[in-house]
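Lines hold sequence, tokenised fold; shown next:
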Amino acid sequence: MYAPIRMPGPLFDEIAAGGGSPEAVAFLVRGERTRRLLLLRELLDRLDADPGILGPLGAQPVWPALEAAAARAPRQVDGLLLSPQVGSWLAHTLRRLHGTASGPPLWADAGQLAAVAAAAAVHAGTEARLLLPARGTAVSLPALGMVRLPGPDDEGFHTVRAGIRAGRLTVEGPHGPAVAVRPLDEPESPHWLPVRRLETGPGLRTVQLDDLDPYRDLDEPIAPGRLGPDELRAWQRLFGDAVALLGRSGGSAPGGLRPEDISRIVPWQDKDGPAGLPVPSSGLSASTGDAFASMVIARPPDPLSLAETLVHEFQHSKLGALLHLFVLIEGDDRAELHYAPWRADPRHLPGLLHGAYAFVGVTGFWRARAREADAGTRERAEFLFALRRSQTRMVLRTLATRARLTVAGRRLVTGLSGTVDGWLRDPVDPVTRARAGAAAVSHRVEWRLRNLRCGDGERDRLAEAWRSGTAPPRGGQPLVVPGVSGYWHDDRGALYLAGTPDAGAGPSADASLVAGDAAGARTAYTALLRVPGPPDRHALAGWMLAHAALYPPDRRLLARPERLAALLETVPPARWTEAARWLAGADAGPASSPGSG
């Protein structure tokens, strides 16, 4: 029997505020350990009930090998079982057994348990003889590295014999002589590729830079993607500078991070097939609750961006671990209805909670940077602090009013709201605050135009009222149209962040709007919208923003821009200003409309 885990209230409140002391994070790790053991027990039970799952590996003394290693080196084996590699593999294999995931032959996924036992024996210096799964010439040992066997690499799956004794691993493949390595201290060679490490400080835990493990991704197993020397040096330099930057502020406050709490960084790798994502741009990152303190990151352009990404993804890890201990939202409401200011698409409430938690950390990160002496960093940081502070507060209000929060969930949202509300007292340069506010409105207007539309009946009533000269009808519930627009980049927001539009890029409607020339921007947007075909949503949002700047009372239109979009479809461009002014007299619609904050 496993002892129940009871999280002390003060530790919960630290996490709920968006931060977390070493003791609070250690408690989350303790919960992850218990969960990992329960999942391992489930896998062992499934294999005991159906040994045929292991195919050519057959029944072998995997559990005795693990027990012997744990008895001699409990701390090292605990660390192995808690590694992201074991977490991702274990979750993926159980999904395979439940029929909710695909991948290589099932025996190869399930048989990776033998590789875990082999790695444990290496750490403990115990003896074991096991059959391991191999893909081509590659034999993966979780959190240690990869053996490369001699012979042709056909990438097919087959078994190899492995012997472990006193930390020495000997692997016999189907071609050529056996390969013998000492994984704990063996340097890189043609037959051994160790997991690379990033330094966090003298005497502190290193962070894995994993480009080898087949289960390092978020989905199906993938092939190794060894970084070249130049790419490796770039990661080492960026990470070292990011660690120094994070060290300037406390690691326990919201937005802080102790780099040694990170377990692994996986460089983002493009993948083939329909499940693959496109070649990433800077700023792309992701994580999974299956692998605590691990994150997949496309190499960012500078240490500041990397430090922000590390904070962001570790927030997701903390909340993921908390969700393994507590139910925070009742039911399973996965309807994608809600506005997340950091995304292009509508989100469901669990995703909204994850985003809010992550961006409390991001907001705290930029708050700390805004207090630093570097003038260049301070201006950017003040803008992002002001922007994320207001956006995160909006999402927290949505969660407080829309989500069916449990007692623990309400305590979490209350804690996060208290943190963000406290930051509202922090002074920000008025010009910077105004730019951040304009960027927030711009994103929200364009998001609504891309993801929401009026019902056909409302559109027809608007058109009829406009033609007849009667008062505009009240707004109805907008319809969410997920997945229609796809990904879009917030180009106008990037200009607001830059502060001064790039003169070398030439004049544009966006540049005119950001520079404060609303009349010029409206003229330029009108020209873009006169082309045949459906209106460009980015240009249409810009036209509305420029109109609201010229006619401040009409800003109420920006709360429900999809209503104005529906009306303008029936009105010639020469009368758009007149139509917008007419509609501005209408009620903006119910406060409970999807996408509202």
Summary: Residues 22-49 form the longest helix (28 residues). The CA atoms of residues 50 and 162 lie 24 Å apart. The first strand starts at residue 128 and ends at 135.
